[in-house]
TrEMBL record, chain B:
GO MF annotations in UniProt: 3-oxoacyl-[acyl-carrier-protein] reductase (NADPH) activity; NAD binding
Ketoreductase domain ranges (all copies): 7-192
Keywords of the record: Fatty acid biosynthesis, Fatty acid metabolism, Lipid biosynthesis, Lipid metabolism, NADP, Oxidoreductase
Name the record gives this protein: 3-oxoacyl-[acyl-carrier-protein] reductase
Species of provenance: Gluconacetobacter tumulisoli
Pfam families, per database record: adh_short_C2
Length: 79, 249
């Protein structure tokens, strides 16, 4: 697993207070990890801060799963 | 009841009559207060009156007409207190009165900027931490004219009505995290802002107040102290009218 993936996972565990084993790439923040809409906004803000990236609103809306977040951040970092 | 021991409270416009009373009251209830405003010397003297020994009182000047200053103030207040913010009191405000047909854009814009945009920016900055910590209290000081309107105050009454609507929205957004957002709408309070009224105007206003007197800054401060207390934890999105009965919306 990449460094980015590890860090994303850690943020999700910390923020949503879920068990690490549940934070699989396919896990949906809302459907599987019990996040509400405010949690997803806070997660995006936490990612922005942790990775020094800006995630615009239309991109943030598409980040539904752990993998979505990792992919988006990896793409930004590679660019 | 209503103790605020250990709480960190930022009060904007703390150099004014109502703001100073709010800061003094919250400090008296045990809170650490951060006094903000544009006039450093006045803030220093208010802080010295509130806490002669300097304990639990800090001064963080800011000019809220500068968008960056509003964003930076929450961080500066937390740095001064050495702890995250529990309470935000949006009290700073100004008036640029005039009949609408003669009101200049700059008078409209300045009131919107300082009385509505700056409180929004402060709420936004404070909410980030409050939501994360799952606790917090925001009280914004609006005005009776935000509900009733007032000839000569199209800008001020629009900004204060806006503050009420904004607070209801924020209350809905923040409720799931235990953060409450409320408004206190003062009526006719004796301050520098109302001292400029002519005697005839004053008498006419007094005739419309069932409780028969002008408000004192402490009347407003007591309402704020209640809304920021733990005991008011099931009140959010409301506007508490503190006006001697002048309007009963």
């Amino acid at each position: 697993m990449s460094e980015i993936a590890d860090k994303v996972k850690k943020i999700v565990v910390e923020h949503l207070g879920v068990e690490e084993s549940k934070v699989t790439p396919e896990a949906s923040f809302i459907d599987d990890l019990g996040a509400d809409s405010l949690d997803t906004v806070e997660l995006v803000m936490a990612f922005e801060e942790a990775f020094s990236v800006e995630i615009p609103e239309d991109a943030a809306e598409k980040i539904a799963t752990v993998k979505d977040a990792i992919d988006y951040i990896e793409k930004q970092k590679a660019a | 009841m209503f103790r605020l021991d250990g709480k960190i409270a930022l009060v904007t416009g703390a150099s004014g009559g109502i703001g100073a009373a709010i800061a003094r009251t919250l400090h008296g209830q045990g809170a650490t207060v951060i006094l903000s405003g544009t006039r450093q010397a006045v803030l220093d003297s208010v802080a010295a009156q509130i806490a002669p020994d300097g304990a639990r009182a800090h001064v963080c000047p800011a000019d809220l007409s500068d968008p960056a200053a509003a964003d930076a103030l929450v961080a500066a207040a937390e740095a001064a207190a050495g702890a995250p913010l529990d309470i935000l009191v949006n009290n700073a405000g100004l008036t640029r009165d005039g009949l609408a047909i003669r009101m200049k854009d700059e008078d409209w814009n300045r009131v919107m900027e300082v009385d509505l945009a700056a409180p929004f920016r402060l709420c936004r900055a404070a909410l980030k931490g409050m939501l994360r910590r799952r606790a917090g209290r925001i009280v914004s000081i609006a005005s009776i004219v935000g509900i009733t309107g007032n000839a000569g105050q199209a800008n001020y009454s629009a900004a204060k009505a806006g503050m009420i609507g904004m607070s209801k929205s924020l209350a809905q957004e923040a409720g799931a995290r235990g953060v409450t957002v409320n408004v206190v709408a003062p009526g006719f309070v004796q301050t520098a802002m109302t001292d400029v009224l002519a005697e005839a105007q004053r008498e006419k206003l007094l005739a419309g107040i069932p409780l028969g007197r002008m408000g004192q800054p402490d009347d407003i401060a007591a309402a704020v102290a209640y809304l920021v207390s733990n005991e008011a934890g099931w009140i959010t999105g409301t506007t508490l009218n503190v006006n001697g009965g002048m309007a009963m919306p």
